[in-house]
Design goal:
single chain; 268 residues; 8 helices; 41% helix
């Protein structure tokens, strides 16, 4: 018996087998949860459907989270097949690639609206119609990143969107607590995914992050998945409105430098 045996979890945002969302899906499956997935368009369906079928998913549904009618249609099908469910996972973020390099002050009005709509408002958009279908003790979670708190070069408007997302987590947790539903966020360290590749200089970010964390490495999608299991399970029954860091300790470091190189530097 796994920690999530008998639970049903719907996961938004799997793009391919390197997605953090897929790491979460695998961990949930290993712990006994029944899974459902969305996809955006035919191109992503070709990637998502085989993955979903590999874990026995019965619900593999189209949904553009920018369109309320598609969200409504998705939940009608969820209600028809499952009735109620227990876990909702939001792994959705998007900004135009040209907004993710250069100066933040060059962010366009349209680009700002798009990033905030898809990356932050979508959590509210998929939560509101889900609430009547969630069992008491239900768990909602989303993915964020430290760029919401500190400046990460080129992360730009996505950092603002993640800050809005984290604030939304707190307000949703307050709203839904009386219903016994918890809402939390996982702040994962940089992981090489399709979404992350759109951030300018990501390869350098990945290398630098791995060097500066207390554990001297980056994290894996599986490690994020394990934390998601904790947030979805009764083991975290008293935890809501929180941002849980899975970043090898990167968020605690204020400055990092190589002391050995300092010692090797020739003195004038």
């Amino acid at each position: 018996m796994g920690l999530l045996s008998g639970k049903k979890a719907f996961i938004f945002g799997v793009a391919n087998d390197r997605s953090i969302a897929w790491g979460i899906a695998k961990a949930f499956h290993e712990q006994g949860a029944e899974l459902g997935f969305n996809y955006l368009g035919e191109a992503l369906e070709k990637r998502v459907r085989p993955l979903a079928e590999s874990v026995g998913a019965k619900l593999i549904l189209p949904c553009d989270v920018a369109k309320d009618d598609q969200i409504e249609a998705l939940y009608k099908e969820v209600a028809r097949v499952w009735g109620k469910f227990d876990i909702l996972v939001h792994c959705i973020a998007f900004a135009n690639k040209d907004e993710l390099s250069g100066a933040f002050s060059n962010t366009s009005r349209a680009g700002f609206h798009l990033a905030l709509d898809i990356s932050a408002y979508s959590l509210i958009g998929i939560t509101r119609p889900a609430v009547p279908l969630l069992n008491e003790g239900g768990s909602i979670m989303t993915l964020t990143y430290y760029g919401s708190e500190k400046v990460i070069p080129n992360y730009n408007v996505m950092g603002v969107a993640k800050a809005a997302l984290e604030c939304s987590v707190r307000y949703l947790a307050y709203d839904l607590g009386a219903k016994g539903i918890r809402v939390n966020a996982i702040s994962a360290g940089p992981i090489k995914t399709l979404a992350a590749s759109g951030v300018g200089g990501f390869k350098t970010m990945l290398k630098t992050a791995g060097e500066m964390t207390p554990l001297r490495r980056n994290v894996s999608q599986d490690e994020v998945g394990n934390t998601a299991v904790y947030l979805a399970s009764p083991w975290s029954s008293g935890v809501t409105g929180e941002v849980i860091y899975v970043d090898a300790g990167g968020n605690i470091v204020g400055m990092h430098f190589d002391e050995k190189k300092e010692e090797e530097t020739p003195k004038a």
